[in-house]
Structures are given as structure tokens and as C-alpha cells.
Amino acid sequence: MTPSKQEYREKVIREYEAERIRRGVEFGECFCGCKKQTTVSPCNSITYGFASGIPRRFTHGHWQTPRRVDGVLREINGVKCYLIPLTQGQSAQVSPRAYEEISQSRWYAKWDEKGRSFYAMRHEKDSSGRDHIIWMHRQVLGLSIEDPREADHVKTKDTLNNTDVNLRFSTRQQQAYNKTVQRNSATGFKGVWLDKRSGKYNCSITVDKRRIHLGTFTVAKDGARTYDISAIKYHGEFACLNFPRSDYTTI
Predict the structure, then answer these.
(1) Which one in 97, 153, 156, 235 has a CA-CA gap of 20 to 30 Å to 5?
(2) Closest Cα to residue 93, out of 170, 163, 197, 188?
(3) What is d(CA 79, CA 218) in angstroms, rounded to the nearest whole number?
(4) What is the model's pLDDT at position 180?
């Protein structure tokens, strides 16, 4: 269902503020960190993510030009970090211990369509001249190209936050546990789907490549909470929940 103009505007404001705070810029400043003021959008545009009366994120051309590393230690959401400039107007966060190594390379922002988020990457050639993609989150954890282990972001949607508190080692299966609900989900909840024939909601969870049926519900939220409880049980710290983990403190 298409959101109303007011709902769309409120959504853009929330996303703008969250991104502005993450980048550490003032309201109305270019998100690339150049300190220039951006123009205010005169209308709504779902295509470009604009909302009437809200500043645009970048001044013209700045969205694709990487900045120089400024070497400023910041504190974002209570975590001390440095910003590493990327292309497409993006920047990644790294902890002080990793800054010296990471800042020596030129990094790029790569859009992941499936996850709907950016990742930081660079290119590197081996001794035979073969080109390899180096992912910043893997390098921060010290994982080589040959290392079979995976690097996982604790906050699934915050894939440019490569600080120590947001990275952990994982297996590919644990990464699958930590994936968010699919964009084409009819219910908007992970592990819950609508049975059109019965009009009820089925709930299931995958554990060790085996799907476990958790029940059938008349209300989608009930199925979503049932999934969350099972995810905490089977997936542990890698569980990606439909509701805040604080809702399940008694588990």
C-alpha cells in the first residue's frame, strides 16, 4: 500500500536524522562532511528520497567524490571512532586501533541490493596479478582472502559501522540467521507468511538447514513473537528478531 504524503515525509525525516547523526554532521550540512549547506527540497520525490522542506543529503556532485581522511576522533552513539571516506558520499566507521591500517587505502562504497545497504570495499592484486575484492569489515577482523571464517555485523542494517563493538566472527550459517526479513515479505515479519487458502499465518524457523514448523496463527504479530522466542533459543546472539530483544528479558 502506498504511504500517504505525511507518512512518507515522516519516514524521510526519520531516515535523514538517523543518517545525519551517524555521520556526525549538523542539520542542513552536506553528508560528505564538507560543511557546505545543501538545498531544501521543494517537493516530495520517492524516486530520490526527497521530502518537501527537508534538506537534501548532498550538494551537487558530492555524493560520489571520496573525501580525504580528516583524522578526527569522534564519538557516535557512545562509541569512539574515526570516519573513513568512501565513494557515493558514504563513510565507514572504524575503531582507533584499526584506523592507522585502514586509512592507508582508498575505499569504495558498494551497494548490496539484496540487503539494501552499503559495504566498504577496495581492490587488491595478488602476486599473479589477479584482482581481489577486500571487504573492510573482514580486514578489520584480520581475515585474509583464504580464511573461511566470516565477518558479521552485529547490527545487521549498520553495515558501514566497522567498529570493534559491531563486528564478530561467524560461520556462513550464523550469518544467515542474522539476516533481516526479505523485502518482498507480505507480512513484514521474519519467519511468518500468510497461507492464502486458510487466511492464517504460518510460522517456521530454520535450524541446521532444517525447517521447523512453529505453529499457525490468526494474527501475524503472534507468529512473529513465537519466531523471536525460538530464534533466541536456537540462534543465540545471531538471532535477528522482529521485535526488540529487551521484550524477551525473561527468556
Answers:
(1) 156
(2) 163
(3) 42
(4) 81
pLDDT tens string 120-134: 999 888 888 888 999
Residue tagged 564538507 (cell numbers): 34
For residue range 144-172, list pLDDT tens digits in order: 989 999 999 988 778 999 999 999 998 88
The residue type found at 157 is K
Global pTM exceeds 0.70? no
Assign 3-class secondary structure to 5-48: HHHHHHHHHHHHHHHHHHHCCCCCECCCCCCCECCECCCCECCC
Q: For residues 131 and 200, is the Cβ–Cβ distance under 8 A?
A: no
Condensed to tens digits (0 to 9), the pLDDT of residues 206-247 reads 998 899 999 999 999 999 999 999 999 999 888 889 999 888
Terminus-to-terminus CA distance in the chain, angstroms?
Answer: 35
> What is the grid cell recorded at 139?
580486514
pLDDT of residue 18: 86
R_g of the chain computed on alpha carbons = 21
